TrEMBL record, chain A:
Family to which this protein belongs: Belongs to the ABC transporter superfamily.
Organism annotation: Micromonospora haikouensis
GO MF entry, a single one: ATP hydrolysis activity
InterPro entries in alphabetical order: AAA+_ATPase, ABC_transp_ATP-bind, ABC_transporter-like_ATP-bd, ABC_transporter-like_CS, P-loop_NTPase
Protein name: Peptide/nickel transport system ATP-binding protein
GO BP annotations, alphabetical order: transmembrane transport
TrEMBL record, chain B:
The protein's name in its UniProt record: Peptide/nickel transport system permease protein
Family in the record: Belongs to the ABC transporter superfamily. Belongs to the binding-protein-dependent transport system permease family.
Domain ABC transmembrane type-1 residues, every copy: 68-257
SMART domains, per database record: AAA (SM00382)
Keywords, in A-Z order: ATP-binding, Cell membrane, Membrane, Nucleotide-binding, Transmembrane, Transmembrane helix, Transport
Membrane topology note: Multi-pass membrane protein; Peripheral membrane protein
MF terms (GO), sorted A to Z: ATP binding; ATP hydrolysis activity
GO cellular component entries: plasma membrane
Predominant location category: membrane
Length: 265, 618
């Protein structure tokens, strides 16, 4: 459904950040994109959504070249790709109530009338497990996990085919993380959207994703079904990432890291 | 907070009086401000004329009230025009970026740098005096600061996920600017406007005083001043009241603006410089055993909450030994950071701390600020989560470390200080200390900034290092490297450490002892291996279950705990975790569980009445 072919992208002064990336996401599939900050994964997400233009290569969603579209057609097409960001508080307007925030995409695309929109907002709040009475609050009055649920509800309001999640749980407590991840799993099963899940934490996508792509220095260094990547990692970087997990509860002070402090004499 | 709000209200009083007087002048003024009564000229204040009369016999109080009306009308008009124009121009420029932004910014720079009064004089010189020209003249130069403020606010959001999210939802430029950016830009503009009230009132009075503003016989404060000037010695009541009125409004507006701006952004650094309000320990603790660096007994922290008070940490006891890492683990709001920072006076000034905290044999609770300075930074080093906020963006890393070395009393000649700084940076695992010392915080990655913070914390050769979420905002690989660094510092320098984290998996890498905090109390503590391999408390089990595990089938759900974290130690009569606990029994609601050893003479302790492991064996 999503086909990214040989995409390279960058910014004027910084140079190339994403190099020759090829990636597929099928409907109903979660693909984990793993890499550390600065490896180009967020830039790749912006290219996929059409917010950033690639230097070379193409992005097709459901057969349509995302970057060949302009103006109204582009905006109409964007309904199909939505994104959930790391910090929900930064993506929600502090002055809007939750209800207003979720209604806004429906207004923009002139979907339904006031009554049907209101019913749809109730439905969406219910879908992400939020009490409808929270609808009149503002983002600042919600917990981090609740804010992220609102951001997910807003992204799903337009029934996208592809949901891009950029580190959606990194800012949350571990116990809240698990709930939001379960929610994403449930929603994917229910609504069958494709999902590109971006994270620096291989352990999270190892349990969540159907396939994993490991990115480093702007390139995808390893890509495959989750079991294959976690059980038989081919690239040394993937092996390093795998060594960072909790290891089934055993303590592990590894010998990672290029630097070794020495006591000053 | 309440006292602050009361003060803000107090400061606003003259402005409210000014606005009310202006609006109600026709109703409350005792006489017509322009009605001459030459027979009653220059009468001193009396019951009939509360503020006396001027040389033409006009009632001064009425003129003062009508003067407020004119000043208010002109000020409102000028502010409305300049705020609207400035906010719109600034928002559009900040949003558009590129050449539009550059051109608009230069224009703003030029207008801001022009002397406002000269611009006003020039405009009035060309167009002649009068109220509308006065408004035009003032608005022409007062819009620029609003544009600059709005532009800065919006430009900082230009590449933020906020706008990306809106674009993806299909929002056009008009909606993004009008619905989302303009309201955000207006907030700081309104704060500035409260200061600007004084400036405009003063400018109107000045221009009228010069005869270029409101023409006589209209009552205007500046106009009243100039008319009263010849009579300063004989009839003080002519010039003083308008003078006092102008001064009061200008002062009140400046103070109000300052207070509103301060309320909008209160720097967190305040925690570092001001010690908490601390009560002395009631009785000194017994002599500690020699390996213990910090021994905390019965620590409670209470914050004022409106008229009541709220405990956030209740009766916590813990200790850290030389060469050992104690990790506090818990969810946001559990009180873990408060418990770790309270002994060192690093909490908000309103916090009341009780209990005892012995650093070797020194009692830390109740120390005076001067005594604290000999402990913090020397015997105790602190590392905060957000290195970006901790480091001054305008100073190099070297300057930060040099300062810490001097504060710790280890400086000397400049070269000696530099040498120590270099060693500290190397100790913190920064490979090229000379190059790093010359760099500014923004030139370093998050992990390197955190290493710089660790170098600063090590400057006093502390016995104890306290790290509050030291790796939370960082990549998994960088997290692991930093934790390994902390582990080596512990081993090689024999330092004691307290690490605060929400992630049990992360701290399991370095911690010797783990204390799990829930609702302001320690619910389980013990050696890290025991606690992770055989967790006892249902909450600890829940935390461990939430951690993703390798080799599970894709799409396997994470195990979660029901309900939300929250609540203080005094909210419930029984166990704080009972409402979320899968194993809750009736007694849990009434009986607070005590932290007890699992077996006699073990360090692994848990506060649970019906723990799953022990229930089965009974």
């Amino acid at each position: 459904m999503l086909a990214v072919d040989r995409v390279s992208a960058g910014y004027g002064a910084v140079g190339t950040v994403v190099e020759d990336v090829t990636l597929r996401v099928a409907a109903g599939e979660i693909v984990g994109l793993v890499g550390e900050s600065g490896c180009g994964k967020t830039t790749l997400a912006r290219v996929v959504t059409g917010l950033h233009r690639p230097r070379t290569g193409t992005v097709h969603l459901a057969g349509v070249d995302v970057h060949a579209l302009r103006g109204r057609a582009l905006r109409a097409h964007r309904r199909q790709i939505q994104m959930v960001f790391q910090d929900p508080f930064l993506t929600l307007s502090p002055r809007q109530t939750i209800r207003q925030a979720i209604t806004e995409p429906l207004q923009i695309h002139r979907i339904g009338d006031a009554r049907s929109r209101s019913a749809r907002v109730d439905e969406l709040l219910d879908l992400v497990g939020l009490d409808p009475t929270l609808g009149d609050r503002r983002p600042g009055q919600l917990s981090g996990g609740q804010q992220q649920r609102v951001a997910i509800a807003r992204a799903l309001a337009l029934q996208p085919r592809l949901l891009i999640c950029d580190e959606p749980v990194t800012a949350l407590d571990v116990s809240v993380q698990a709930k939001v991840l379960n929610l994403l799993c449930d929603l994917r099963d229910q609504l069958e959207f494709g999902c590109l899940f971006i994270t620096h934490d291989l352990a999270v996508v190892a349990q969540l994703a159907d396939r994993i792509a490991v990115m480093r220095g702007g390139r995808i260094v390893e890509q495959g079904p989750t079991g294959q990547v976690t059980d038989q990692p081919a690239h040394p970087y993937t092996k390093t990432l795998l060594a960072l997990g909790i290891n089934d509860g055993r303590r592990s002070v590894g010998t990672l890291g290029p630097t070794r402090p020495t006591y000053p004499s | 907070m309440n006292r602050g709000r009361a003060r803000t209200t107090l400061v606003a009083v003259p402005l409210v009086v000014f606005v009310v007087a202006g609006l109600l002048a026709p109703l409350i003024a005792p006489a017509d401000p322009t009605a001459n009564d030459l027979a009653a000229g220059l009468a001193s204040p009396s019951a009939e004329h509360l503020l006396g009369t001027d040389q033409l016999g006009r009632d001064q109080l009425s003129r003062l009230l009508y003067g407020a009306q004119i000043s208010l009308a002109i000020t409102a008009a000028v502010l409305a025009i300049s705020l609207t124009a400035g906010a719109v121009v600034g928002t559009v420029a900040g949003y558009a970026g590129g050449w539009v932004d550059r051109v608009v910014s230069r224009v703003i720079d030029v207008v801001v740098s022009l002397p406002g009064m000269l611009v006003a004089l020039a405009v009035i010189g060309v167009r002649g005096p009068g109220v509308d020209n006065l408004i035009l003249a003032l608005a022409l130069w007062s819009w620029a600061p609003y544009a600059r403020i709005a532009r800065a606010r919006v430009a900082s959001l230009r590449d933020s996920p906020h706008l990306d999210a809106l674009r993806l939802l299909g929002a056009g430029h008009g909606r993004i600017v009008g619905r989302h950016l303009l309201p955000l830009a207006l907030a700081p503009c309104l704060v500035y406007a409260s200061t600007d009230v004084g400036t405009v009132v003063l400018a109107v009075a000045t221009l009228s005083f010069l005869g270029l503003g409101v023409a006589p016989p209209s009552a205007e404060w500046g106009q009243m001043l100039i008319e009263g000037r010849p009579f300063l010695a004989s009839a003080w009541w002519l010039a003083y009241p308008p003078g006092v009125a102008i001064t009061a409004v200008v002062f009140a507006s400046n103070l109000l603006g300052e207070r509103l701006a301060a309320g909008a952004e209160r720097p967190s650094i305040i925690r570092l410089v001001r010690p908490g309000r601390i009560r002395r320990a009631t009785r000194p603790a017994a002599s500690p055993d020699p390996g213990t660096v910090l021994r905390v007994r019965d620590l409670s922290v209470t914050y004022p909450d409106g008229s009541a008070s709220r405990r956030v940490v209740a009766g916590m006891s813990y200790e850290v030994r030389r060469g050992q890492v104690l990790a506090f683990v818990g969810e946001t709001g559990s009180g873990k950071t408060t418990a770790a920072l309270a002994p060192f006076g690093l909490l908000d000034p309103s916090a009341a701390v009780t209990g005892s905290a012995l650093l070797d044999t020194h009692e830390l609770i109740g120390l005076a600020p001067g005594e604290r300075r000999r402990i913090n930074g020397r015997r105790v080093g602190v590392v905060f989560q957000d290195s970006g906020a901790f480091l001054n963006p305008l100073r190099t890393i070297g300057a930060h470390v040099d300062e810490a070395v001097r504060n710790a009393g280890r400086g000397g000649r400049r070269a000696a200080t530099r040498r120590v700084s270099g060693e500290l940076l190397r100790l913190a695992g920064l490979p090229d200390p000379v190059a790093v010392a010359r760099q500014f915080p923004h030139q370093l990655s998050g992990g390197m900034r955190q290493r710089a913070q660790i170098a600063i914390a090590l400057a006093g050769e502390p016995e104890l290092l306290v790290a509050d979420e030291p790796t939370s905002a960082l990549d998994a690989t960088v997290q692991a490297q930093l934790l390994d660094l902390l582990a080596r510092l512990r081993d090689e320098l024999g330092m004691a450490m307290i690490i605060v984290s929400h992630d049990l998996a992360v701290v399991s890498r370095v911690a010797d002892t783990v204390a799990v905090v829930y609702g302001g109390r320690i619910v389980e503590s013990g050696p890290a291996t025991d606690l992770i391999d055989e967790p006892d408390h249902p909450y600890t089990r829940g935390l461990l279950d939430a951690v993703p595990r390798p080799r599970t089938a894709p799409g396997t759900r994470f195990r979660t705990m029901p309900g939300l974290a929250g609540g203080g130690p005094d909210d419930l009569a029984g166990c704080g975790f009972a409402p979320r606990c899968p194993l809750r029994q009736d007694s849990c609601d009434h009986e607070p569980p005590a932290l007890q050893p699992l077996l006699p003479a073990t360090a692994h302790r848990s506060a649970c009445l019906h723990p799953p492991t022990r229930e089965g064996s009974c």
